[in-house]
Design brief:
The complex is a heterodimer.
Chain A: H1 2-36, H2 43-65, H3 88-93, H4 105-109, H5 116-132, H6 134-156, H7 159-172, H8 178-190, H9 215-225, H10 259-264
Helix pairs in contact in A: 1-2
Chain B: E1 18-28, H1 32-42, E2 49-60, E3 68-75, E4 83-91, E5 101-110, H2 114-121, E6 124-138, E7 141-151, E8 160-162, E9 166-176, H3 181-192, H4 204-207
Antiparallel strand pairs in B: 1-5, 1-9, 2-3, 2-6, 3-4, 4-5, 6-7, 7-8, 7-9
The chains are: A mainly alpha, B alpha+beta.
GO cellular component, one term (chain A): core mediator complex
Keywords (chain A): Activator, Nucleus, Transcription, Transcription regulation
Protein name (chain A): Mediator of RNA polymerase II transcription subunit 8
């Protein structure tokens, strides 16, 4: 009987040690990635690492809950010998993490109770729980269960339903105002909504300007087309083949190109 | 009075007749950041450049017909840069299925004496405004997101008041006449900006009423 129990104990210890070794390796590679490949790391791969760790912890939990696992609580570990000397075998087994089995490591590695602060908090929580009474506690438990199930339901619903809702929400948000569009376009196109300038600067364009016009105008026309026409010719000649036609003051002759370049040369 | 439409004019040499293909839309202030992010992603990778321009629109009223319009623009953020003079023709009413507004466009640079020159020529300033915002490029396409402000005291560009709570978004391409693939490209680019902003062909003459 005892031998069987011992065998159980040993087997479960072995499997626990392997599981913990898996967790250790996963943590090791994750830390390495975080420290060295920091720039190339993407959030999905970080999530993958966390998922791996969580899965491994789950396995360990299941292992401990397993019926075949004897209760480890009944076992005692008593350090038989503590020494300040370096123990090479221990160092090798623990990959240089525990070189000396001394008094300093005992409280950390052979701890059975949680940290003092954690213990305090647990005590407070259990006092609080005892204070509120069983009915209130039951109601709180029920509310929590309801919230969780609602959330699970929403998450497990088909994706299409969720997308339809969010699309409808997005459409309600307006990014532009058509009235504003027409106002702005009107302003740019012909000054709708912009104050018009006073008319006092208006000089009527008429042939009266032409006779005795400044000599530079003549230069313009010569430069433009090499054609001469009498200054003060007929004001507007529409339907002339030619590109843009400015009346009177600039345009002379017919069919020249590059009017604007000519204008600017003045 | 306007230049006769491109299609009936013989080519008499000189510069190539450039057409401006235009799509316009607007976006509310609160959506501006998202739009800028999207444009930064979609457009060519360059330093996002902002601009502040003062545009004056000059009219020359002839004996008959519509007045002749010239637009003079200067940069308030770079005062030493030359003025920019632009002529925009009437939108071409050819193909209804064409996705963008197409109009004849002539652009030249001018010296700082442009306003006095235009006044001497007989032009009268009709209105002016200040536009500031961001400009993005994607290949030949240019996207301008600008906030328009009206000038309260003529000539004083510091004292301005916003026209509306939206930014004007314009997608434009300057191309020689007759290239209809341009409007297809513009339309597919505009699709990518939905639903933030709906860029569409807005006929200014219809806006007048």
């Amino acid at each position: 009987m005892q031998q069987r129990e011992e065998k159980h104990l040993e087997a479960s210890l072995e499997s626990l040690i392997t599981q913990v070794a898996h967790v250790k390796n996963a943590l090791h590679s994750f830390i390495f990635k975080l420290e060295n490949e920091y720039e190339r790391l993407t959030w999905p791969s970080v999530l993958d690492n966390f998922a791996l760790l969580s899965g491994q912890l789950n396995t360990i939990n299941k292992l401990l809950k397993n019926e075949k696992t004897p209760s480890f609580r009944n076992q005692l570990i008593i350090p038989l010998l503590l020494s300040q000397d370096r123990d090479d075998d221990l160092a090798k087994v623990t990959e240089q993490r525990v070189p000396v089995f001394s008094h300093e490591i005992v409280p950390d590695y052979l701890r059975t109770k949680p940290d003092p602060e954690v213990e305090e908090q647990e005590k407070l929580l259990s006092i609080e729980a005892a204070r509120i009474g069983p009915e209130v506690a039951q109601k709180q438990i029920q509310t929590l269960n309801k919230l969780c199930s609602n959330l699970l339901e929403k998450l497990s619903n088909p994706r299409d339903e969720r997308d339809a809702e969010s699309a409808a929400l997005r459409q309600n948000k307006c990014w532009f105002n058509p009235a504003d569009t027409s106002a702005l376009v009107g302003a740019v196109a012909f000054g709708k909504g912009l104050s018009k300038c006073p008319k006092n600067k208006y000089i009527p364009c008429a042939p009266s300007l032409m006779p005795g016009g400044p000599p530079t105008l003549q230069q313009v026309t010569m430069g433009a087309a090499g054609q001469q026409g009498p200054l003060g010719g007929p004001p507007q000649q529409q339907g002339q083949p030619g590109r843009t036609s400015l009346p009177v003051a600039i345009r002379q002759g017919r069919g020249f190109a590059g009017t604007f370049q000519a204008v600017i040369r003045v | 009075m306007e230049a006769p439409p491109v299609t009936v004019m013989p080519v008499t040499g000189g510069t190539i007749n450039m057409m401006e293909y235009l799509l316009q839309g607007s976006v509310l202030d609160q959506a501006l950041e998202s739009l800028l992010h999207r444009l930064r992603g979609l457009c060519d990778n360059m330093e996002p450049s902002t601009f502040t321009d003062h545009e004056l629109v000059y009219l020359l009223k002839g004996q008959q017909g519509n007045p002749f319009i010239l637009r003079a623009r200067r940069s308030l953020s770079q005062p030493a840069a030359p003025w920019h003079l632009r002529y925009l023709g009437q939108p071409e009413v050819g193909d209804k299925s064409r996705h963008a507004l197409v109009r004849n466009c002539v652009d030249v640079a001018a010296s700082h004496s442009l306003p006095e020159f235009l006044n001497e020529m007989g032009f009268r300033m009709d209105h002016e405004f200040v536009a500031n915002g961001h400009i993005f490029r994607k290949g030949a396409m240019k996207v301008v997101v600008s906030k328009l402000s009206r000038i309260l005291v003529p000539g004083n560009t510091d004292n301005t008041e916003r026209l509306s709570l939206s930014y004007l978004v314009e997608l434009s391409v300057l191309a020689p006449a007759g290239q209809d693939t341009v409007s297809e490209d513009m339309r597919s680019f505009a699709e990518q900006l939905k639903p933030l902003v709906h860029l569409e062909k807005i006929d200014p003459s219809k806006q007048r009423h």
